[in-house]
Amino acid sequence: MHVSVLSSGPLSRPALDALFGRESITNTPLLDVIYVTNTSHDISLAGLRFCPNLDAVCRIADDAVPGTRTAVVSLRDAGLIPTGAWGWLDDEALAQAVARTYRHARGTGAVAAAQQQWTQCRGAQSETAAVLPLTEEPIELHVLEPDGDGGQVSRHALRWIEDTDRREPEGFVVAGVDHADAAPGVLDAVRSADVVVLPPMSPILDMAGFLAVRGIRDALRGTSARVVALSPIGLDGHRPAGVDAASWRLTGATASSATLAHLYADFVDALVIDDAEAPTRYPSSLTVTRAPMRAALAGDVDAAARLRACLLYTSPSPRDS
To answer: What pTM value is reported for the model?
Structure first.
């Protein structure tokens, strides 16, 4: 089975741990998995290029490297990286940023550099899986905020998310996307898959980065694969308080799985919601399946097996009404 995953945001790693981590797939006959990582969250700090979504995928079910912050704290004290929570920014991420920046300086492209990192982190598992950055061109998700004088200012979305002085957003833009094409292999990964998986992620802060790149939405619409989205509604592990709610307000709709279904209706075939979510109405073209997502993302191996089975192997259950 060929599975392609579009990966982004803080819930992706626990979701992918549950679906494809070492412990989870011990008795599961999975073949090829391609992870396409959202590059619109990539950010330059202290002269280094950080790729939090790529790092998260490469560290699936990898507890070998302690989450230390000695070097990060030193850089923060020197004023070279920002203060704040920045939960993904640890010494391992710093080491990967140094290696990535070195490779890029020597002429290694983003795809080749990502695969080198994947092989380094995943070892033998890289034989049946691969990682691809969404695009090789630098793109960044920026948030538009009021400047207090009737105008707007723009800053990288990660800075807006992590800084406590964030203001109500007036919009989001993907800077640089006009000159960015999907990286080699990305569109083929979507078109040739048996299943395309969208882990639980924000349609505004995460999925918008994918859909802004030329060809991605058309590839999702045209693929013969079953495109399955996992709803983030009701799951733990979101961004700092107020961030997701503020981004949802820009859609003019309530944050719900039903809203997500309408936003994705033109390219998603099935939506997986947590089994505790209340019934509601969904687009008639969409199949809705319940699964123990909260338990699976919390490390329950049996729940992870049920989630994986409903995602990849079993026929979807009837739609909610």
So the answer is: 0.90
